[in-house]
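Q: How would the structure tokens look for this protein?
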Amino acid sequence: MSWGEFLTRLTDDGKVSRAAIYGKVEGSLWAKSADFFGQPEEAKNIAAAFDKGDTEAIASTGVVLEGVRYMFLDMNDDGLKFKKPGVGGGSIITTNHAVIIALYNDGMQAGPCYEKMLGVADFMKGCGY
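A: Here is the predicted structure in token form.
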């Protein structure tokens, strides 16, 4: 399966507006939706804080993606959720080798986006990523 097919799995049912997959260590872009404008450095910063379990740092500074600062909502062993009123929000899940980022637009819900991410992340983990 190509990386583009993983993105299609994320965005195919309207629960996720746009998404990207980055390499966890180096932050290199593996695939992204045409309308996703996040930067590799943003993904690396988030993955580093996530791996440390540093919820205090994320909670105090928020999540920056596509140059937008989002408010931290929740973090657990599986992933991270964030939101900005009037803009939307998203979820981030890391696997052994990847950082998966999914964003949803204002008016969409965090829960379905996050659940969709969990399914794709579990599939990627099962494939060794």
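The helical segments are 3-11, 40-52, 55-61, 110-126.

The CA atoms of residues 86 and 106 lie 6 Å apart.

Upvote if useful.
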